[in-house]
Amino acid sequence: MSGHSKWANIKHKKGKMDAIRGKVTTKIGRELTVAARLGGADPTGNMRLKLALQKAKENNIPKDNIQRAIQKGLGSLDGSNYEELVYEGYGPAGVAVMVEVMTDNRNRTAADVRHLFSKYGGNLGESGCVSWMFNKKGLFVVEKETGVDEEELMMLSLEAGADDFKVEENEFEITIAPTLFYQLQEILEKNNIKVSVAEVTMIPETTMALTGDDATKMMKLMDALEDHDDVQEVYANFDIPEDLM
What we know:
This protein is of the alpha+beta class. It is built from eight helices and ten strands. The two termini are 13 Å apart.
């Protein structure tokens, strides 16, 4: 199992707690605003908005909040003019880390992100220093406990154009080109296959095994970055044993 999918699963399990804190609602609202601003209010042909609406649905965001965020993006309501930035750096033991943010104050956010990297044994790097280690992909995770037939799932995935199909200890992991994401999602839904993760994300080409203090610091860095109000997504290429997660 790659470090990324482990983290994706942890984020999925943390979802309810995060939603209580309101951070997920705020972050998804920003994504809806920016997606509507860049591509309009019709999710048809605006994949970014479609993904944001899917996240909103998965996290039970109220319809009024969704509409308000979209209206902000269209300029119908007053709202912050968010700027999208990507910070790159290294975590403990040289783990590659990418941090996507939306902010109305880039100086404040840059200082905060730099501080968090330093606090947990990493350092902020130059633009482009680690992004070459990641590929943008659609990611689906199906738990084995759902009872899905491995061969059937593999055939459906390959027919949809999947790039890779991995059999892990407790789950199946499917990656696919972002342009084919909804094609596979529709096929899985039609066949009543329940997924635990369905997202377009950044997949690392290789992962770095971490243990001991490095693993502990890496987990704290991921938590601290994701807990920051301006951070939308964090990607890293670590791999940590299940008992330390």
